[in-house]
Design brief:
Layout (H helix, E strand, L loop, with lengths): L1 E5 L4 H17 L4 E5 L2 H6 L7 E4 L2 E5 L5 H12 L1
Parallel strand pairs: 1-2
Antiparallel strand pairs: 1-3, 3-4
Helix pairs in contact: 1-3
Length: 80
Amino acid sequence: MIIKVLGPGCANCRTLERATREAVNALGLDATIEKVTDYPTIAAYGIMSTPALVVDEKVLTSGRVPTPAQVRELLTNIIG
C-alpha cells in the first residue's frame, strides 16, 4: 500500500501525516507513506485544496484534516 500526503508542508499537512502514521501503526499495515510537496504533482491529482490523502493513487480526502480515527476508518474500508 502506498499512501501519499499531498501539500506544501504546512501545519495541516504535518498533522495529516502524523494522523496517517498513527492509523497505519494502529492497524499494523505494511504501507509506505510519502510526502508530496511538488505543486504540479499535486495538481495532477485534481486537488484544489490541501492537505490531501491519496492511497494507491485514489484521493480519499482533500482540504481537511481527518482525525487518526477517521484515517483508520478510511484505510479499513480500503483493505476490506
